[in-house]
Structures are given as structure tokens and as C-alpha cells.
């Protein structure tokens, strides 16, 4: 025979101060857990969204990131003729890009942050077709014009349509804001490739990377084989999505490790708080337990009853924790991506799956915090407990 | 103190509860120390930056190179004591995961500008004579178990893709615990002869020492004015400003850490306050009897506060002690991703103070309640 | 000699005049004690009886200085305690009163020795002196061999005897007992009463005791009933015994 659950609900309500304490302990831990993970995931998602499985990325052999490499214009011409590349009426869908970092002041602190500036080919929007102009227009090739990603627009000062900014010794006019679907490009500034090259004092006709739009993701291997076999080229070919996934590893790992350590420590603390609450509850209710045992409820029923109570409290704690951090979802923050040396804005990404994990974490803490006290409750000898009257 | 038997007897009233409450303090203080270490690690650059050092970079982009020939012109500016230059090598040692910063240095001036990074004279002299020589910081050398005389191959990613080999001629140590001991230095001459033509004669950034820190602003402006309107304009700022700006790019780390820290302490306060309250409530009758036989309300308050403080201090010391042991292990796990993880005395002192504060706060309410409780009412309540 | 009519003129040890105590309960004012008088001399052993709610415990609390009257005066050994400030009253209690309550007397986490020592910690006695007093007190109640036991290791009667030891250890002016045998079986109750009687008979202690048990009350010199807020003498027999024994 099971002890009615309403007994537990009423007991929790009667000792509500202790219960609230445990709830807050668990809520805090779950909140930190969900927030940290959503931060790491948001970071990763931003980078992964930047890469498409249908794109190939070509960089100089041995480069670990775009900024390091150099691919000549001649090589670009060779690449354009490779098999597997999609073409439209204007020609092969290939964009050769110049990548650098330029300091711009952060709106939040006024100090400079390094922003990734990408000099692109005029046909870039046809290749990265998830990118749309949200405000203003695309820049005109050959001119000192910029379009800025939607995150760059809100993170750095001066990057609004119609404004003129100065870098590299020349004025640049901001003519548009683009929406790159939450990818790292949203933190970038785009302009004309050759012009950026001059500004960065790079040798002319050298690009950091070449991105090709493949006929389909399946033609990647065909493309890669053709390129690597060609003796005139000294390049590495990767799927764009793989490149970006790798770009996010260091930072993601850092946030995950740090966040994991913090959440684990807090979990131990929360379990202690829970144990304290449950042991106190068991001690204070010695008589009630004895009465129930005397009435005929078995030891198992007592254990289950107290465990249920612990789980009830921890579930509420988990729900409160999740609810508390939910407003963070979509909130953008920016940090520096070590691997590309530039500032990257990304958003907290809280998914239903992450919330479920948070609740499970809470319930796990509840079990750990409730099991031993529950067993002790069941072991309370009836005679001893009644003698305490 | 003659009341210590009473206080300790009361503390051990419920052993498990005592362990859990002490444990809660330990956990909170461990986390406090951990967060403090993190915060300091992020701010490290700004903290160790020399007050009398300036950094000169390309105005347009930090990754652009600037001409070596600027050096002599910088030296001519009054107030400049010495100038050195660095290039970022950015190579890979065995695996991308084994990251450590590699700098091309100017041996002639390195020690004048960075006197806190100490190399024994014999090692330095060997390095000077060796074109392919290298000096590594103590923690990087330890990480890869390098010994002097080892041959270190590093694959370049920025300059061609080949493997460059170096002889480890020396190991440097920082003067202070917080100095960076992860750098790898090698000769400018060797670098110059191996890089492609278009990169020759160019350096990444200058670091210079000034005679008087108060002159920094004037000198910085003088340098930037000198090279204004040239093909390579410069941006000069003090090392600490540079480092602080760098940290700001990591986002509001400080805010994040403060927020988590506050959540933790608030919860700790609640938990321990509640525990003290329960423990005092259990003793209502006894406390009433003690007051009846002549113990004043104030004395009772003090007993409870002392109990609370003992728990806080023991838990706090335990947590901080554990942190002291854990930080080196954590540093190893993060593998060079973050600079020097150090548990500084300031964190320990602050932690103890915080534990003290929470100890008092959690005991004060139950203590005041016990102090004010009228004996007669207490008996009626029981 | 014990008197309840307020007529004694000589200096009694305990002298109560016109004692009033009123409680407000749920808006109503209940006057528990109404103009109560009492005189007790050194060496008297007085029992108070009365129906439940009559105010016996209230009277004891007032005499012991753990409650303050609404009106009237209480003088103990020339100290007028009714107008003493809180801290002075606390100090007075420590010096002059030995308390023995019905239950919860002993601190469970302290040994018998440590419990008895508690009042002495408030004095300036050295550790050695304290030990001597404690051992003496425990010897008087016959529990020397249980000195280092915890209350949970003692029977109910033994616990009360330890309480008595604690009550006498600082040699107080008088002892107040509130149902000292209330929770005990007959045998333990006898043990406890035997000790109290010895304290009065052999050591000349003054004892005021509240009880609901007439058999226990009969072991005192005189039983007083609390009725309608004042004390009334119970029987002629008790009074004669008091008159013959004291003075």
C-alpha cells in the first residue's frame, strides 16, 4: 500500500521555508547549467550555421584558418574550371575572399574589438544564398562601400546605414545591413575584395580563401579529388561546414569545461542543501513516520514517499531554474574566437532538449539528495520514534 | 574558553547536519576561489602589464606588419629608454592542440624591455651565439618535458608550410608568479633569412620602455604623429590599456562571474541560515532553561554566533584548501587555453572574509530570536 | 513559618505582597493572581497545589524572576526583585534561585557533570574549584558514579536528580520545583523526593514546589492551595508540623 502523495505535498507546504531553500539551491544550479550549455551551443551553432554542406572551402595547404592562407588569382582561375562546381548564367559560383581583422569600438565598452572584415566577390550573395540584404543595398564593386552583418550592426559603434567609417586610411560608406541567418557572418563586415587587399597592404591578386558552391553535396569528393590532383595547385580542400565546426572547437570546449566545472560544483552544493533539508524533514517527522508504520505502511512505502518528496522539490527547483534563464534565449553577447582572432557575436541558444536536460539534472540531484534520508526514514524504529513523544 | 565544551557539544549535536553545512561552505568557497582564479586569469594581461611599457601596432589592423626601420625613429623620441620588436610566428608543434605563443624576438633589446622574464646568463649567451637557438618559458618547457639541448621542430602555417627546427638553448622564468611563462622565443635573424621576400624587413609590433610612466601619453602621441599619413600608420598605447582592451573582447566575463558568484553566495546564505534556524528552534526548551538559570540573552546570542562562525570558518578553510590543490590540475586540463591560473592570496583573504560574513549573517537572526525569547513563552511553546 | 495573609512583620526570607498577574488572551484580560500574599522562612518546604490553569506555575515563575508581575512586590533576602532590570534580574537568578522543571532540564549533548557545571561557568571560579563543587553536588544526590553519562543514558529519576544537583551547585537561596516528579514512575518519584527531603532536613534548604499529586505534596511541611488568585492553607496538620519544625 502506498502512502498517499497528498501527504507529501502537504508536508512540503507545511515546512515551506526549508523546501524553498532547497528549491532555490537546485534552481540556481540548473540555471547555471542551462545558461552555460546554451552559451557553448550558441557559439557552436553560430559557427556551424556559417558553413553549408554544399560548399567547399579551398585554402592554402597547411593553413589552419582562413586568415593564414594565400591563394593566387591564377589558382582561382584553375579552381573555377574544376568539376562538381555549380554554375549559373553568370558563370561558376565561386567567390574568392580576402579576410582580415580591423579594430572597431564596441558599443558596450568603447574599447576596440577586432572585427573580421571579408573582401568578397560581387557574386557572393548567389553563392551564400542564405544571406539576405535586410536593410539598404549590396555594395557596388570597385567602391569603398560596406555592408555589415546584423550583429556587427548592433555590437560596434558607427556601423549604421548611411554612416561613413574610416579605416585603412580611407573613408568607407555603410550602405547596407545583411542577415546571415545567425551564422558567424552576422558579426562580419563585407566589402569589395581587391579594394580590401590594397588597404591591408597585401600583395595584389592573392586571396585568403576560395568558397565554391557545389552542384550538390555529393559532388564534393569529385571536386576535391580534381583539385588535389592538380600539380599547379598547393591547396587544401574541406567542406565548409567541417571547417566551421573545427573553428568553434577551442572556444566551445573552453566554455563547456568551465561551465561544466562550475555547474558540477554547484550541483554538489545543491545536493548538500537538499540532503540537509531532507534529513531535517525526516528528523522533524519522526512521529509521523512512526505512526504511519504503526498503521501498516511498509518500509518501502516510506522510502518511496520520501523520495517522491525529494523529487517534487527538485522538479520545482529545476523548473524554476529553467524559467529563470529562459529570457536569455536569443540574447546576443560577443566574445573573441581565439582561432580566428576576431570578435564574434553569438546568441544564447536554449532548446527544448536543453531544458529537458536541465530538469533531468535537477531530478538526479533530487535522487542523490533524497535517497539516503528516505532510507533513514524507513529505518526509524517505530518504538524509538514513538518514545520520543 | 570555558564555554568551548558547550559550543562544540552543540555543534556536534547532529553530525550529518554539521558535515552537510560545513560541506556547503566548502563548496561555496571552492567555487568562489575558482571564479576568482578565472577572473584574474582573464584580467592577467592587464594586471602584469608594465606601467612603463608601450605597445605599437599597425593602426589599420593588428595583423598587419610594420616596418623595422621605424625603430630608429622611435628611439629618437625623448623619454624612450629602449625598444624591442616581436613577430607572431603562430606555428604548430606536433598538433594544433599543443598551442603556445611563439615570438620572433630582437635579442639585443629583449632583456632591457622585459626585465621580469629572466634567463640565466650562460643560457642567454649560448642563445645569442646560436642562429637557430630558442628560449622557452618554464611552463611550456615543463608541459612538453623539454630539456636544454633538445631539438624543437615547429611547422609554420603563416610562412610557407615547412618545418622550422630550433635548438632549445635556454629556459626563462618570470620574476613574479603571475608572469607569463608560456612563450617561445627565437632569433629575428633566423626569421628574416627564411621568410618570403614580401615579408622581410617587417615586424609585428614594437614594445618600448619609457623613462617615466607619466610621459606615456606624450610619447604615444609623438610616435603616432610621426608615422601619421605614412603607408603604415601606427597606434600606440600603454601595455595595460592594450591588455585591458583585449580582455574586453572576451565579453563581460566579469559580469558573468559576479552573477554566478552572487547566486552561489545567496544560496549558501539561505541554506546555512535555514540550518541554523532549524538547529536553534530544536533547542528552544534548553535555551529557555539556560536563560532561567542565569545565562543572559546576550550570552546566548554569542553562543549561537560562535557556532555559526566556527562552521563558516572550517568550511571556508576546507573549500579554499581544496581549491589550492585543485587549481594546478585545472590548469593542466585547460591545456594552455587560458593564461596562468593562479590562486592568489587576495582571493584567499577575500574568501575568508566572505565566509565570515555569511557565518555571521546566518547566525544573527536565529541568535537574536533566541536572545529575545522570553523564558515563559518558550516553556509554553514546548 | 509560612503565612499567606500578609500579616508577618518579621523579616521572612521570601516576602510577597499584593501580587497581581494579568494576561490578555484573545482580547480578554484574565487575572490569574489577585493580591496574593506569601511569607516563607529559611528552611521551609512548601507545596503549592490547585486546579490546572489556576496559576501555580505563574506564581513560581514570578518568584523565580523569570516573569514580571502586573502589580505587587516580591522581596527575597532583602532584594526587591519586582523592579529589577532584565540583566540584574538574570544575575540575581543565577545567584539566588535553583530551578527544577518537569522536563527538558538537561542539555542532551552535555554529560551529567557538564550539566551540573553550567551555573558555575557564570562565576569566576577556577576549573578545579568548579570540579569540587560539581562533585559535591552529585554526591549529595547520590550520582557520583554517573558523572560522565549523558542524559539519554540515565533514567527519568536519575535525570531529575542531576537537575537537582545543578540547582544546588551554586548554593542558591532557595529552590523552585515545578512538578519535579510529574513525568516519573512511583519508584523514581520516591528517589527524587527523598533527595529533596534530605536537602531540607539535613542541609536546611528552602524549597517551593508545585505539584498536582497530593501524595507528593504530603511530603512537604505545608501545602498551600491556589484558589481564585490567592493562596489558601490546606490543612491544620501541615501547619502544625511547620510551626514545630522551623522557627
Can you walk me through this structure?
The complex is a heterotrimer of chains A (389), B (382) and C (247). In chain A, a hairpin with a 4-residue loop joins strand 15 (332-337) and strand 16 (342-347). Chain A has 2 domains: 5-48 and 249-387, no CATH class; 62-233, no CATH class. The model of chain A has no long low-confidence stretch (mean pLDDT 85). Chain A contains 13 helices and 16 strands. Helix content of chain A is 50%, strand content 22%. In chain B, helix 1 (4-11) crosses helix 12, helix 2 crosses helix 12 (297-334) and helix 2 (15-48) runs antiparallel to helix 13 (345-372). In chain B, the strands form 2 sheets. In chain B, strands 1, 3, 4, 5, 6, 7, 8, 9, 11 and 12 form a 10-stranded mixed sheet that branches. A two-stranded antiparallel sheet of chain B has the order 2-10. In chain B, a hairpin with a 7-residue loop joins strand 7 and strand 8 (163-174). The radius of gyration of chain B is 29 Å and the shape is elongated. By secondary structure, chain C is α/β, with parallel strands linked by helices. Chain C has a domain at 42-65 and 95-237: P-loop containing nucleotide triphosphate hydrolases (Rossmann fold). Helices cover 33% and strands 25% of the residues of chain C. Chain C has helices at 56-63, 86-96, 112-117, 127-140, 156-168, 186-201, 214-217, 236-245; strands at 14-25, 28-40, 45-49, 71-76, 79-80, 97-100, 174-178, 207-210, 222-227, 230-233. In chain C, the strands form 2 sheets. A 6-stranded mixed sheet of chain C has the order 6-7-8-3-9-10, with helices on both faces. A 4-stranded antiparallel sheet of chain C has the order 2-1-4-5, covered by helices on one side. Chains B and C meet through helix 1, helix 11 and helix 14 of B and helix 2 of C.
Amino acid at each position: 500500500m502506498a502512502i498517499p502523495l497528498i501527504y507529501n505535498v502537504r508536508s512540503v507546504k507545511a515546512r515551506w521555508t526549508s523546501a524553498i531553500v532547497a528549491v532555490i539551491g537546485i534552481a540556481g544550479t540548473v540555471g547555471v547549467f542551462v545558461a552555460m550549455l546554451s552559451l557553448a551551443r550558441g557559439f557552436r551553432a553560430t559557427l556551424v550555421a556559417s558553413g553549408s554542406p554544399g560548399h567547399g572551402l579551398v585554402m592554402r595547404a597547411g593553413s589552419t584558418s582562413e586568415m593564414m592562407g594565400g591563394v593566387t588569382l591564377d589558382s582561382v582561375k584553375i579552381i573555377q574550371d574544376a568539376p562538381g562546381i555549380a554554375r549559373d548564367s553568370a558563370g561558376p559560383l565561386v567567390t574568392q575572399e580576402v579576410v582580415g581583422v580591423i579594430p572597431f569600438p564596441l558599443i558596450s565598452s568603447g574599447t576596440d574589438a577586432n572585427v573580421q572584415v571579408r573582401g568578397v566577390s560581387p557574386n557572393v550573395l548567389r553563392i551564400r544564398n542564405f544571406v539576405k540584404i535586410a536593410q539598404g543595398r549590396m555594395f557596388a564593386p570597385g567602391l569603398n562601400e560596406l555592408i555589415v552583418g546584423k550583429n556587427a550592426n548592433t555590437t560596434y559603434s558607427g556601423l549604421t546605414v548611411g554612416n561613413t567609417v574610416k579605416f585603412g586610411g580611407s573613408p568607407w560608406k555603410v550602405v547596407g545591413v545583411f542577415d546571415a541567418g545567425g551564422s558567424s557572418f552576422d558579426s562580419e563586415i563585407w566589402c569589395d575584395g581587391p579594394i580590401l587587399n590594397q588597404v591591408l597592404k597585401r600583395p595584389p591578386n592573392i586571396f585568403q580563401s576560395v568558397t565554391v558552391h557545389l552542384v550538390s553535396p555529393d559532388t564534393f569528393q569529385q571536386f576535391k579529388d580534381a583539385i588535389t590532383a592538380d600539380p599547379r595547385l598547393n591547396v587544401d580542400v574541406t567542406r565548409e561546414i567541417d571547417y566551421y565546426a573545427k573553428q568553434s572547437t577551442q572556444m566551445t570546449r573552453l566554455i563547456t569545461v568551465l561551465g561544466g566545472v562550475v555547474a558540477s560544483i554547484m550541483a554538489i552544493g545543491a545536493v548538500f542543501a537538499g540532503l540537509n533539508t531532507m534529513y531535517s524533514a525526516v528528523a522533524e517527522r519522526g512521529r509521523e513516520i512512526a505512526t504511519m508504520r504503526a498503521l501498516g505502511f511498509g518500509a518501502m512505502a516510506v522510502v518511496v514517499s520520501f523520495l517522491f518528496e525529494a523529487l517534487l522539490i527538485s522538479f520545482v527547483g529545476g523548473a524554476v531554474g529553467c524559467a529563470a534563464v529562459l529570457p536569455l534565449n536569443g540574447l546576443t553577447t560577443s566574445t573573441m574566437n581565439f582561432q580566428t582572432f576576431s570578435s564574434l557575436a553569438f546568441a544564447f541558444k536554449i532548446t527544448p532538449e536543453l531544458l529537458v536536460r536541465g530538469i533531468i539534472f535537477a531530478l538526479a540531484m533530487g535522487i542523490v539528495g533524497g535517497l539516503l534520508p528516505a532510507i533513514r526514514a524507513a529505518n526509524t524504529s517505530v518504538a524509538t520514534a514513538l518514545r520520543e513523544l | 574558553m570555558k564555554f568551548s565544551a558547550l559550543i562544540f557539544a552543540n555543534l556536534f549535536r547532529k553530525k550529518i547536519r554539521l558535515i552537510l553545512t560545513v560541506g556547503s561552505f566548502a563548496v561555496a568557497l571552492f567555487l568562489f576561489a575558482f571564479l576568482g582564479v578565472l577572473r584574474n586569469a582573464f584580467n592577467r594581461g592587464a594586471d602584469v602589464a608594465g606601467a612603463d611599457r608601450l605597445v605599437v601596432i599597425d593602426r589599420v589592423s593588428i595583423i598587419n606588419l610594420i616596418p623595422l626601420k621605424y625603430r630608429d625613429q622611435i628611439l629618437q623620441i625623448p623619454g624612450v629608454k629602449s625598444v624591442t620588436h616581436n613577430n607572431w610566428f603562430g606555428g604548430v608543434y606536433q598538433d594544433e592542440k599543443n598551442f603556445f605563443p611563439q615570438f620572433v624576438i630582437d635579442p639585443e633589446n629583449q632583456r632591457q624591455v622585459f626585465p621580469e622574464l629572466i634567463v640565466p646568463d650562460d643560457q642567454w649567451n649560448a642563445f645569442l651565439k646560436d642562429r637557430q637557438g630558442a628560449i622557452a618559458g618554464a611552463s611550456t618547457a615543463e608541459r612538453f618535458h623539454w630539456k636544454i639541448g633538445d631539438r624543437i621542430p615547429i611547422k609554420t602555417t603563416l610562412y610557407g608550410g615547412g618545418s622550422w627546427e630550433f635548438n632549445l638553448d635556454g629556459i626563462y622564468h618570470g620574476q613574479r608568479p603571475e608572469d607569463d611563462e608560456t612563450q617561445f622565443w627565437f632569433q629575428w635573424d633566423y626569421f628574416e633569412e627564411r621568410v618570403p621576400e614580401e615579408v622581410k624587413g617587417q615586424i609585428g609590433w614594437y614594445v618600448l620602455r619609457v623613462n617615466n610612466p607619466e610621459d606615456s601619453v606624450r610619447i604615444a602621441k609623438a610616435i603616432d604623429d610621426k608615422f601619421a599619413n605614412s603607408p603604415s600608420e601606427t597606434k600606440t598605447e600603454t601595455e595595460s590599456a592594450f591588455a585591458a582592451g583585449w580582455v574586453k573582447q572576451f565579453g563581460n566575463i566579469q559580469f558573468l562571474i559576479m552573477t554566478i558568484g552572487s547566486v552561489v553566495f545567496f544560496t549558501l546564505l539561505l541554506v546555512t541560515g535555514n540550518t541554523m534556524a532549524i538547529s536553534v528552534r530544536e533547542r528552544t526548551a534548553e535555551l529557555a532553561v539556560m536563560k532561567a538559570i542565569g545565562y543572559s540573552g546576550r550570552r546566548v546570542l554569542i553562543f549561537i554566533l560562535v557556532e555559526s562562525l566556527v562552521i563558516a570558518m572550517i568550511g571556508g578553510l576546507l573549500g579554499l584548501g581544496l581549491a589550492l590543490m585543485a587549481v594546478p590540475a585545472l590548469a593542466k586540463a585547460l591545456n594552455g587555453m587560458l593564461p596562468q591560473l593562479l590562486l592568489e592570496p587576495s582571493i584567499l583573504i577575500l574568501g575568508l572574509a566572505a565566509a565570515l560574513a555569511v557565518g555571521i549573517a546566518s547566525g544573527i537572526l536565529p541568535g537574536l530570536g533566541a536572545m529575545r525569547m522570553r523564558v515563559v513563552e518558550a516553556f509554553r511553546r514546548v | 513559618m509560612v503565612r499567606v495573609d500578609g500579616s508577618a512583620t518579621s523579616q521572612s526570607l521570601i516576602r510577597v505582597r499584593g501580587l497581581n498577574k494579568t494576561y490578555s488572551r484573545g482580547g480578554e484580560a484574565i487575572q490569574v493572581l489577585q493580591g496574593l500574599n506569601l511569607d516563607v522562612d529559611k528552611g521551609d518546604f512548601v507545596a503549592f497545589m490547585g486546579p490546572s490553569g489556576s496559576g501555580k506555575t505563574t506564581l513560581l515563575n514570578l518568584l523565580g524572576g523569570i516573569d514580571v508581575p502586573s502589580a505587587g512586590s516580591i522581596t527575597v533576602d532583602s532584594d526587591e526583585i519586582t523592579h529589577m532590570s532584565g540583566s540584574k534580574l538574570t544575575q540575581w537568578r543565577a545567584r539566588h534561585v535553583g530551578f527544577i522543571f518537569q522536563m527538558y532540564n538537561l542539555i542532551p549533548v552535555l554529560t551529567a557533570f557538564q550539566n551540573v557545571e553550567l551555573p558555575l561557568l557564570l562565576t569566576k571560579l577556577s576549573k578545579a574549584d568548579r570540579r569540587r563543587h560539581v562533585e559535591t553536588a552529585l554526591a549529595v544526590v547520590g550520582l557520583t558514579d554517573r558523572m560522565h553519562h549523558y542524559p539519554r543514558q540515565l533514567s527519568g529519576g536519575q535525570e531529575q536528580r542531576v537537575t537537582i544537583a545543578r540547582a544546588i551547585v551554586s548554593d542558591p537561596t532557595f529552590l523552585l520545583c515545578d512538578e519535579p516528579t510529574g513525568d516519573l514512575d512511583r519508584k523514581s518519584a520516591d528517589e527524587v523526593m527523598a533527595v529533596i527531603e534530605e536537602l531540607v532536613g539535613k542541609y536546611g534548604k528552602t524549597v517551593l514546589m508545585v505539584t498536582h499529586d497530593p501524595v507528593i505534596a504530603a511530603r512537604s511541611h505545608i501545602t498551600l492551595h491556589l484558589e481564585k488568585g490567592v493562596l489558601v492553607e490546606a490543612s491544620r496538620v501541615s501547619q502544625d508540623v511547620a510551626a514545630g519544625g522551623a522557627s
